[in-house]
């Protein structure tokens, strides 16, 4: 089809036509809001590198979740900052840990909000790594029991879904087996299956106080140069019992999201991470961009690439924008 016989602008001329032929639709139902819980009461600590986000005590956290629910956001992802850390990350799987308390508070106040929990050890260990350290190295197999114990404690607290983000080999299978044996066979697992060793995580590490105290995480997170490895990682987690596969980060890995969408038939999540949020916010604060328009375009690109759901720190702003359309 060639001009002038074909005129592509014919179907762009009117708003009604543009809506009728729109190929990708972003809705509030696609959004998951990450939140940070801390011990105490009446505290909301601003996160300097993530303007508009805070570390919340449970009372404030519940208020934010209520606002999110009123906007139609269907789910939140909870991260916890413990009151103390140790080599074994014991507060990660303690029945009175911060995430466990936050889950109970949210489910009591907003029972219809889906509560997802991040399952990892980095916020809870004094060394800041996602698994146990033995002789200066991350011991994969020793870590599995503790990760499974963490997931189980979240399920017992009332979590609707658990999301292991540690990138230890075999952790999805270990968590699935533990949940099933303890009577939680209906709790789904959203696996951070394709998690890259990314520079985009900087603001999160400030928010969650989870910076490694030595070395880095390249021995267990993926090389940003690799795409075939993403298929292997996702396939392994599916075979171990994952219900949803996640790609993290999102914006620099749209090709990975698209490739996985073609390769797997499970629901696919994408995590638009703290660095993505911070860059947009910084440019917005400088007056260089229209922040909300860039947010919406970014989220639409992630959905267009093939994601079924998006974890985003812009969920509240995006929901307001979508609800006003």
TrEMBL record:
Zn(2+) binds at residues 120, 122, 130. 5-aminolevulinate 2 binds at residues 274, 313. InterPro entries: ALAD, ALAD_AS, Aldolase_TIM. 5-aminolevulinate 1 binds at residues 205, 217. SUPFAM superfamilies: Aldolase (SSF51569). NCBIfam families: PRK09283.1. This is Delta-aminolevulinic acid dehydratase. It comes from Desulfamplus magnetovallimortis.
């Amino acid at each position: 089809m060639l001009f002038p016989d074909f005129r592509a602008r014919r179907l762009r001329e009117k708003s009604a036509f543009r809506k009728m032929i729109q190929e990708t639709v972003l809705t509030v139902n696609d959004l998951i809001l990450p939140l940070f819980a801390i011990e105490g009461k009446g505290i909301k600590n601003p996160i300097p590198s993530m303007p508009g986000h805070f570390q919340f005590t449970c009372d404030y956290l519940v208020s934010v979740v209520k606002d999110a629910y009123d906007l139609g956001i269907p789910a939140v992802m909870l991260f916890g900052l413990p009151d103390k850390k140790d080599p074994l990350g014991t507060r990660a799987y303690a029945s009175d840990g911060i995430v466990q308390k936050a889950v109970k508070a949210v489910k009591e106040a907003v029972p219809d909000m889906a509560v997802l929990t991040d399952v990892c050890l980095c916020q809870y260990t004094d060394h800041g790594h996602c698994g146990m350290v033995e002789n200066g190295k991350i011991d994969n197999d020793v870590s599995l029991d503790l990760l499974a114990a963490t997931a189980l404690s979240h399920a017992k607290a009332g979590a609707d879904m658990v999301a292991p983000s540690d990138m230890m080999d075999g952790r999805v299978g270990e968590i699935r087996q533990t949940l099933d044996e303890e009577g939680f066979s209906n709790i789904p697992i959203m696996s951070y299956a394709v998690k890259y060793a990314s520079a985009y995580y900087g603001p999160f590490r400030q928010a969650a106080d989870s910076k490694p105290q030595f070395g880095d995480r390249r021995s267990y997170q993926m090389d940003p140069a690799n795409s075939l490895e993403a298929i292997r990682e996702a396939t392994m987690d599916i075979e171990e019992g994952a219900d949803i596969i996640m790609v993290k980060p999102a914006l620099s890995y749209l090709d990975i999201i698209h490739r996985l969408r073609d390769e797997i038939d499970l629901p696919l999540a994408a995590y638009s991470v703290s660095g993505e949020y911070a860059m947009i916010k910084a440019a917005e604060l400088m007056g260089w961009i229209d922040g909300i328009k860039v947010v919406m375009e970014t989220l639409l690109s992630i959905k267009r690439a093939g994601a079924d759901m998006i974890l985003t720190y812009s969920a509240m702003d995006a929901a307001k924008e979508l609800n006003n359309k």
